[in-house]
Design brief:
There is one protein chain. By secondary structure, the protein is mainly α. The protein contains 14 helices and four strands. The strands form two sheets. Strands 1-2 form a two-stranded antiparallel ribbon. It has a two-stranded antiparallel sheet with strand order 3-4. Strand 3 and strand 4 form a beta hairpin. Helix 10 packs across helix 14. The longest helix is centred in the N-terminal third of the chain and has 29 residues. It is globular and about 70 Å long.
Length: 418
């Protein structure tokens, strides 16, 4: 009797394993699930928008992934490998090109993608590296649409070589098991006024900038529809990767003094978002962008909102900081590493992150210093943060000397002898 039960149990386990294997194999063959019940006809949207306000929204959100410096447009580019376990991520073309961009898309299709997260053409749910915005307000949505239809150089047609994202087996499994789309039809969403700072701060942090996508427990398990349901909401701990393939662990944004921003004053919080510098003078690492286009009212609203969160933090061990060469040994390399430049400008960096064209674009030290100090003064569309206020003239000169030396002789070339 006992042997019979063991045999039956073994067969049941074997059948379960085989069934699971068959299900997993079928999921891989079929690819990510589709949501055919979603239709652009349910997302018809008619509201006048403001082009200038729309471009500001793009600078706050879309530009960090979709801006391609090589074409000076929103033609898309390869993303940093923070989602390497899910495949190869490439931000798509958002220009008005009719073949590789969104030139033939209707407003309803754009709204459907942004609000529901379902692609209007292939009906699959967007990957986690492209967050959708189910709770973006009607006024912000109208402004964004107005800008995408404008004659601004960023969105004029650009037919760059087509590069598509490639998904992994883990991606397909997550798509079937974990990722769900947003609402299947259009709803009215109001933007909170500045007279309600906490509500406005919650909207900016959760629904527009979607800070919880990085500053929670996992960048792969984010709830865009109900942000507060995200695991480890604003407690930090998500593991990501910069362009140099270094591991970065996100900090928390709760008022916890340990692992959060409980000890940060408003001015320190503001400097972190606008300049990318912590209260102790360290540089925030990529993929954390800066937000110089946020208004004072928006910054103070976000700070007020984060102070209302429960002061918890993730106990995940933080990534090791970059190794910074001693200043006495190599002043220029010291500044390059202190400012966090290796997180984007790795020795094998490609395209706009490569430093190989520095001698051609900036033939003299003065022009290179001017760009590093304030990139947007030289190029209004630049997405690199400015370092002019964060380094003395001597430190900036040492940095420029090292950048040129790095291009000509490699990252470990010794400094010139005096």
């Amino acid at each position: 009797m006992k042997r019979t039960l063991l045999r039956v149990g073994g067969l049941l386990v074997l059948l379960a394993v085989l069934s699971l294997g068959a299900a997993v194999g079928l999921a891989w063959v079929l690819g990510p699930p589709t949501y055919d019940e979603y239709s652009a006809g349910d997302f018809e949207f008619q509201k006048e928008g403001d082009v200038v306000a729309g471009k500001r929204l793009v600078e706050l959100t879309c530009v960090h992934c979709h801006y391609d410096p090589t074409t000076d447009s929103l033609a898309g580019r390869r993303l940093s490998p923070e989602y390497k376990a899910l495949g190869f991520a490439h931000a798509p073309n958002l220009t008005q090109d009719e073949v590789r961009g969104i030139g033939l898309w209707t407003d309803a299709e754009v709204v459907m993608l942004l609000r529901s997260g379902v692609h209007p053409k292939n009906k699959t749910r967007l990957p986690p590296w492209m967050p959708f915005h189910p709770n973006i307000s009607d006024v912000d949505l109208a402004n964004l649409l107005a800008y995408l239809r404008s004659d601004d150089p960023w969105v004029t047609p650009q037919r760059t070589s087509e590069q598509k994202s490639e998904v992994s087996f883990k991606y397909v499994l997550r798509a079937w098991l974990n990722w769900k789309p947003g609402p299947a039809q259009l709803t009215v969403v109001e933007r909170p006024p500045e007279s309600e700072p906490i509500a406005l701060g919650a909207y900016l942090a959760n629904d527009l900038l979607q800070c919880h996508g990085c500053h929670s427990a996992s960048a792969e398990k984010v709830d865009w529809v109900y942000p507060h349901k995200t695991e480890g909401f604003y407690q930090g701990g998500a593991k990501m990767t910069d362009f140099a393939r270094n591991t970065v662990v996100s900090p928390g944004l709760t008022p916890s003094p340990k692992g959060g921003i409980g000890d940060w004053t408003y001015e320190e919080f503001r400097r972190g978002l606008v300049e990318g510098v912590t209260p102790v003078g360290k540089f925030l690492r990529w993929p954390m962008p800066t937000y110089p286009r946020l208004t004072e009212g928006e910054l103070s609203a976000m700070y007020a909102y984060f102070q209302t969160l429960e002061p918890k933090h993730n106990k995940q061990k933080r990534a090791q900081p970059y190794k910074v060469s001693p200043k006495i040994v190599d002043p220029g390399r010291h500044e390059f590493e202190r400012m966090g430049c290796p997180s984007c400008h790795a020795p094998n960096a490609l395209g706009p992150l490569s430093l190989k064209k520095v001698p051609e674009k900036y033939p003299d030290d003065a022009s290179l210093i001017e760009y590093i100090s304030n990139p947007r003064f030289v190029d209004p569309n630049a997405w690199m943060r400015g370092y002019g206020k964060l380094a003395s003239d001597e430190e900036m000169s040492a940095l420029v000397e090292y950048v040129r030396r790095r291009v000509e002789r490699g990252p470990y070339a010794p400094p010139p002898k005096e």
